[in-house]
Description:
The protein is an alpha/beta fold. The protein has helices spanning 33-41, 53-58, 78-90, 109-118, 131-138, 170-174, 189-198, 228-235, 247-255; strands at residues 18-22, 44-47, 64-66, 95-99, 123-126, 152-156, 179-183, 206-211, 219-224, 241-245.
Amino acid sequence: MTAGDVSADATDVDPGTVYLVGSGPGDPDLLTVRARRLLEESDVVLHDKLPGPKIIEMLPEDRREDVGKRAGGERTPQSEINERLVELAREGKSVVRLKGGDSFVFGRGGEEAEYLAAHEVPFEVVPGVTSAIAAPAVAGVPVTHRDHASSVSFVTGHEDPTKAESAIDWAALAKTGGTIVVLMGVGRLPDYTKALREAGMDPETPVALVERGTWPGQRVATGTLETIVDARDERDISPPAVTVIGDVAGSRELVVDFLRNDYGPAAEGA
Length: 270
Ligand code: SAH
């Protein structure tokens, strides 16, 4: 831009639209048609690692920004991502904010939508297939089942269940009789399985851990409320993984021999 070139001043440009796009759990075939189209057509894609290696590989290098971790390894503050979205939109660009799964399920999409609205930037929400449902599903676990579960709760396992100020009432969850799906719950698995047992949930309740659902090398570990921590440790299950707690996790046994979802040579293992 040369001095006096007012036409290039960002404030003169109509803001571009920000698309809050859920990528689905990671298999590119599970992107929505709209998500795929926007990835091809947008000026820039802001993403982190959760959409998975296959989808990230598809993004043209000159049009993508990794806003997951900064050099040094710590997570980019949400405020910085919010500001970048507004900055790019004010340059007139169409911007995809790509999140794993669905942006509005533990994806901070709600915060981004509020920030964009407060800064008068138009945005569109493009729902994605959440890993909370899809990761269990591709492992043969339906989150509801007429015989086993009439409700399902999605909770974060990030919090310390022993803290009084924990936002999650594990004792109440133990009493619903429905399925409990825990996201971000690999590290604190021992804490919340214990909290559920102490609240009276049957220690024999089936539990499944689905690691990297639909990614190459997806793995599944199964056990009960009592044994799942050992299963996690034996298989060295690490994030991203979802924990499914409830009788539905046991119904996997009935279908797994005929389940043909295939996510690469390292897949499975039961
Ligand atoms: N918005 C995302 C969730 C973000 S929170 C969604 O709707 O799926 C991050 C957590 O999501 C991870 O810790 C893990 O529990 C879960 N997760 C995301 N992708 C996953 C995948 N492919 N397989 C298993 N778990 C996944």
